[in-house]
Design brief:
Radius of gyration: 24 Å
Helix content: 55-70%
Strand content: 5-15%
Shape: globular
CATH class of the largest domain: Mainly Alpha
Strand order of the largest sheet: 6-5-4-1-7
Number of domains: 3
Number of helices: 8
Length: about 270
């Protein structure tokens, strides 16, 4: 029994070391970018928007990414009337925090600056439910939930193995099973979200105006015209042509378009 308790204590100590060492690294990274970030915020508040953009981008180059950083970049580009840039950074902010109300509101304002009014395809109730569930949290947060719940399951199950009291033993057993179930649920949601994000390659159009054709050549039919800031799904590439799909389901080919994928790792 003493040996089991000793092993349990070692596992517990190791758990706290891993958690707090990771926390220290995170806090150090946040602290290192803070002066530059605050300088960018000051430039924004003083109306020096071009300077603020340059400073925010310097923060990105350090490898730091956050909802607040992308949100501020979106706001700054919005002030500069850079339609595509503002929409792009608001979308990046939503990837990290899909539920942020300020980001969602400002994203709508930015989209109102675009020339193209595209109505999205209607969704079934099941699709709406799935979309809401997947957008509750970012992929990173679902991953954190999964790790924490699995660690908690291990700790509770170890507690079940070592305690003597039958009442406490039963409580720990059923609580550990519940935690395991929640962990598996969180893992499953994260897995589905990850698979969808891998398949889906969304992009923002940075070209001022572009024609959409039925085929990857100018001999095809001209279907419609798109303008900067339009969000689309990037389906395929053929030399200088890109196949795209917009929110209403319409597809076509665009030539020599300036597209910026929302999957890209900025300043890597």
């Amino acid at each position: 029994m003493k040996m089991k308790i000793a092993i349990y204590r070692k596992i517990k100590v190791l758990f706290y070391i891993v958690i707090f060492s990771g926390l220290d690294s995170f806090l150090f990274a946040q602290a290192s970018m803070q002066p530059l970030f605050e300088e960018a915020n000051q430039a924004y508040n003083e109306g020096e928007y071009s300077k603020a953009v340059a400073l925010y981008e310097q923060v990105l180059k350090t490898g730091q990414h956050s909802t607040e950083l992308y949100f501020n970049l979106g706001n700054t580009h919005y002030r500069l009337n850079n339609v595509a840039e503002s929409i792009f950074y608001y979308e990046k902010a939503k990837q990290l925090d899909p539920t942020s109300e300020p980001v969602l509101i400002n994203s709508v304002f930015a989209k109102n600056m675009t020339l193209d009014a595209i109505e999205p395809l209607p969704q079934s109730q099941l699709q709406v439910l799935e979309s809401k569930l997947l957008s509750l949290f970012s992929l990173r947060i679902w991953g954190v939930f999964t790790i924490v719940l699995f660690w908690l399951f291990v700790m509770l199950f170890l507690g079940y193995l070592f305690v003597v009291s039958s009442i406490l033993k039963r409580t720990l057993f059923f609580t550990s099973l519940l935690t395991l179930f929640l962990g598996l649920t969180s893992f499953s949601i994260g897995l589905v979200k990850n698979n969808k994000e891998k398949k889906l390659n969304e992009a923002i159009l940075f070209s001022t105006q572009i024609d959409v054709w039925s085929e990857p050549n100018a001999q095809g039919e001209l279907l419609f015209t798109l303008h900067e800031g339009t969000k689309m799904e990037w389906l395929d590439t053929l030399e200088e042509w890109n196949k795209i799909r917009i929110a209403n389901g319409s597809e076509g080919w665009i030539k020599n378009a300036e597209l910026r994928s929302l999957k890209e790792n900025l300043f890597k």
